[in-house]
Structures are given as C-alpha cells and as structure tokens.
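Onboarding guide, step 5: your first structure request.
Type a short instruction followed by the sequence, for example:

Predict the 3D structure of this protein.
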Amino acid sequence: TAEVGSMAPASTPDVEKGQERLTFVQIPQNLTRFFEITRKDRVVFVPIEEIVRANLPKLFRNVEIVSADLLRITRNGDFTLEESEDIDSNFIKEIQLGLKTRKRGRVVRVEVEPDASSYLMGILRERWNIDNGNIFVIPGLLDLKGLNQILRYPSFRGKGSKLPAPVAPLSLPDGAEENMFEYLKHHDVLLHHPYNSIEPVVRLLERAAEDPQVLGIKQTIYRLAEDSRVTAALLKAAENGKHVSVLFEVKARFDEERNIREGARLEKAGCFVIYGVGKYKTHTKMLMIIRKEGEKVTRYVHIGSGNYNEQTSRLYTDLSMLTTNDTYGHDVSEFFNVITGHSQPDDYEYLITAPKDMRQQLIHLVRE
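The system replies with structure tokens like these:
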C-alpha cells in the first residue's frame, strides 16, 4: 500500500537545444473519474485523463506535442518517526509532517499504457531510479477502482455481485438485542465476522451512549469507517455526561490523518483521548461499558480481532466476543488503567499481551 497518483506526461520539442522536453500534467484527484455525456437514449462515460489529454494543446500553446502518454505511479508510504516513550503534541505534529513527506516518497511502481514513448520510458527509469521489473504496461484503463462511479449509475444498480447477508449468531437468539444489557448478564455472545454482523456491538455502544445507568465508556480504536457510527455514539455519550476514554492509534498506516482528526473531535467534546502508547503500535480492539445496576457496577466488555469499522467488518474475517465475565472485565479494566495511567499491569488472568509475554505464552500453549 502506498500513495498513488496519475499523470499525463507531454513531450514537446526544445527548439534551442534540438531535443525533446518532458512535462508532467497531474490528473486532478478531487474530480469525478468519469464525465457523463447524454446522447439521446444512452450515456457515454469519458475518463478525465482522456479529457486532459485531448486538451493539452490548450495548455501548451504554439508548441508541437510529440507524444502524450498516461502513467500512474505508486510511492512508498512509509515514513520514519523518532520513537519515544511519551506521546505528546510534538509527536502528533511529527506525524502530520510525515504525512506531507509521504506525498514525495520514493516511486516503487509505475503503470503505463501500451506504446508509451521510448523517450518517456528512459526518463522514468533515470528520474525515479526504477528498473523494468517495477514498470507495468497496462492495457485499458489505469486504476480500475474509478469504475465504481459507473457501477453506481442507475442502469447498473442491483447487477453487481452482492455480499451475502450476515446470519444471526447462534449465541444471540431473536429478540435478545432488544434488552442486550440484561441478556449479556447471563450469556456471552461470540461473533464470527463477516458471517455475523458487527451490528450487535455498534448498537450496544449506541444504547450505552443514551442509557442513564451507564457511567463510562472506554475503547481502543485503530481504523474507523467514514461517517462512523462509533464516533457518533462516543460523542453522544460525552454529550450525555458520561466519562469517555478513547485510545486512537495514530500510527495506523494511511489512517493517521483521520484518527488525529476524529480524536480532536472527541477531545473537543470532553472525551479523554490518548494518541497511542509510546513506541508501540496498539492493535488491540477492546470496548468496556461501565454500568451501575442497583448497588453493583457491571462491566460490559467487547474483545475482538477486527476494527470497529461498520464497512470493512463486512469483508474481513475476525472473531469477537461480548461478555460480562468478571475475570475478563478485570483484565480489560486493568489494561485500560495501564494505557491511560501509565501504570504497571498486574498479571492478567486471560489476556495475553505483546510485546511483554505473547510470544512466550503462545509457544507454551502450543507445546501443551
């Protein structure tokens, strides 16, 4: 995965030097990929790159255009951070600076259309120090994901392949979601995504945000969906006076900017936000809802391997569990104490954490 961009290199003669001159024209990424032209009873979709190519003479007036080829480059998306034990405002600024350098990262792949000029190919190899093994000739359109725009056109709706509808989990009978807090006091719920929907988890969080008995919500977040219902629920919880603590992993590759932005929204609403844990990347996905029930406080816990993302949870295979088991509740509570208070953890009963003891424990369990 890396930063990707498309462009149209135009080759024009340099009269003074008696050679060709190469100019790159960036294809705008903030416009729709295809322009729709209606002709009588049909619609023609014209790629934006072809519109740019057809209008190059308007950019290079009084100049002969020898060739105009299309190419798409992929840049290395990694950037180096100065690792430290403390995550502070300087670290956030460093990440934001790194995001800017990503756009100038090393070119690692070039896709070109057939019959691209030999002059262009030679310049590309020299300019980006790239060998033939990383140059790919692509017949047809470059960057096929733009076709999603056409698939959304009314004539194509319902004709594409559809994801199978999720099935109800065996551990969550019909009607149980209507009183999820009561059900979870007596039953654990195991979810196997994407075959089971993440909806029970999201709805539980949304109910918790509105429930007057809920005192607080603690959650770790790695990747979120666009217009995330998870963020909306946490904002609503804070608005309703509940204590909300959230760990946003700001080193989640290609989601750094979104996580910083969403974290700032929650902070502004009064949530306690942590932007990662020192030099580590926090992949764990946990949610704890603290609810007062009479004289007792119950911890409702969700532990899973997948992100709190309503969109990608329909695609990726993950396992997760909802429980009020006291031992799990203690372990998860202890985990949040560690990441929010920088305290040293007690020994967990069920949780196995990296890098402290996961490798050792997994080897031990395999050998047993």
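Each response can be followed by summary notes, for example: The mean pLDDT is 83.
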